[in-house]
Design brief:
This protein has twelve helices and three strands. The protein is mainly α. The protein has one domain. Strands 1-2-3 form a three-stranded antiparallel sheet, with helices on one face. Helix 4 (117-134) runs antiparallel to helix 5 (141-160), helix 5 runs antiparallel to helix 6 and helix 11 (302-326) packs antiparallel against helix 12 (344-412). The longest helix has 69 residues, at 344-412. It is globular, with a radius of gyration of 29 Å.
């Protein structure tokens, strides 16, 4: 048991170390990729840099507080959090609250700040999906319909915004949870096929999605329009070569590459830090996933293990999709790179996920420490009982020996 606790501690320290490295690298790259754009737009070259630090100051304490709560609390009352996130999604459609940007209602205006509820809904969906699929046959029909509708609600709202990227991620995460749970396989596979077939017409319903698909297949056909972003991303990686042009020396961020500090920040990493920088970023994400899953293997409570696995999978999925897009391996879509791209909503949501994950690990460590203390107490009690018994036996034998000696002396006289 001591060995298990030490293994958890060691893996947790490496996991947090890798996470810290990603966050620090993200802060550096946000400043490097945005300082010229921020100076031109806001008159302050450190605008995005300060905002990133501000959101870190909010999200890191939040992550710590969540890690100290019981994961069972979140699994039991996660539907309340999910309902709150759904209300925020609804708020994006209300005039005066919702912020209409680039043809989509994805942002909620809160004074000088804006929040994207779609970032949070990825993880709130996980919180209600785990108990829903794991306890599906323990629920009444009414309860199934109620919670099932609550799970489907954000998917409908995401389509209406529209935010097809977040919709797809939520759909994949729900499928992942269903696959890991004890939900019947036959129903799962049939539902998965129906779901995938339903996504196809949704994908083709908007002409710009079709254009993106054709741009992915042949970006050079329309290099100034639909293929512009991915071509500029190609140029960024080509300029970076092996060792990069040097930190701060990117040319593509000079208003050539759209969203250089956000969706396409990985392209700036490739240009300024070269293949070496790309390799480091990919390696850090792989280490984060590896040690995250290694910690999951130490969990015994089934729902906690499913949730923790899904959280790590969600982070890895988002990182893979973003890298795939900027490398031209996937159709262009506005997805940020976790912990590295600029954006407060993404940072808060992803560190919320880390807090939930650590909550499961911390609770497991407490269980092991409690069990170890109980075993030590039992061993101490058993040892004390044996010592007392042995001492009593020795005293009794000594008393019998003295009595025998006294009897012998009495017979002598």
């Amino acid at each position: 048991m001591d060995e298990t606790i030490s293994q958890i501690d060691r893996s947790q320290k490496i996991f947090l170390g890798v996470l810290s490295a990603l966050i620090v690298l993200g802060v550096v790259m946000v400043y490097s990729s945005s300082y010229i754009y921020a100076r031109d737009i806001y008159g302050n070259s450190a605008h995005y840099f300060y905002r990133q630090l501000l959101f870190l100051a909010i999200s890191i304490p939040m992550c710590w507080v969540i890690s100290k709560t019981k994961i069972t609390f979140w699994l039991k009352y996660g539907w309340i959090f999910h309902l709150g996130v759904c209300m925020l999604l609804v708020g994006t459609f209300i005039p005066g609250l919702g912020n209409h940007v680039k043809g989509a209602n994805r942002w909620l205006s809160l004074g000088s700040f804006s929040i994207q509820p779609g970032e949070l809904v990825k993880y709130s969906t996980l919180l209600i999906s785990v108990p829903f699929f794991e306890k599906f046959f323990d629920m009444s029909v009414k309860e199934r319909w109620l919670k099932g509708s609550l799970m489907a609600l954000p998917l409908l709202l995401l389509i209406l915004q529209p935010d097809f990227g977040t919709f797809t991620i939520c759909f994949v995460l729900m499928a992942m949870v269903c696959f890991l749970s004890s939900f019947p396989r036959k129903i799962f596979y049939s539902s998965l096929v129906i779901g995938v077939l339903a996504i196809v017409p949704i994908l083709l319903a908007k002409p710009y999605r079709v254009r993106r698909l054709f741009a992915y297949l042949d970006p050079w056909k329309n290099p100034q329009t639909s293929g512009f972003q991915i071509i500029q991303s190609y140029l960024a990686f080509a300029n970076g070569s092996i060792f990069g042009t040097g930190l701060g020396n990117s040319n593509e961020k000079l208003f050539y590459l759209p969203e250089a500090h956000n969706d396409f920040i990985f392209s700036v990493v490739g240009e300024e830090l070269g293949f070496i920088g790309v390799f480091v970023v990919v390696s850090l994400f792989m280490l984060l996933i590896f040690f995250g899953l290694r910690l999951v293997t130490k969990l015994e409570q089934r729902m906690s293990a499913i949730l923790a696995t899904s959280l790590i999978f969600a982070l890895g999925l988002q990182a893979s999709l973003n890298m795939g897009v900027v490398l031209g391996l996937l159709p262009t879509k506005g997805l940020n790179l976790p912990f590295i791209s600029a954006g407060g909503s993404s940072l808060i949501a992803n560190l919320f996920a880390i807090g939930l994950f650590l909550s499961a690990i911390v609770q497991r460590k407490k269980e092991l420490n409690s069990l170890q203390a109980h075993n030590n107490f039992d061993q101490f009690r058993s040892s004390s009982s044996n010592t007392f018994s042995q001492s009593f036996q020795e005293q009794r034998m000594s008393s019998m020996t003295n009595d025998n000696r006294a009897t012998s002396q009495g017979e002598l006289f």
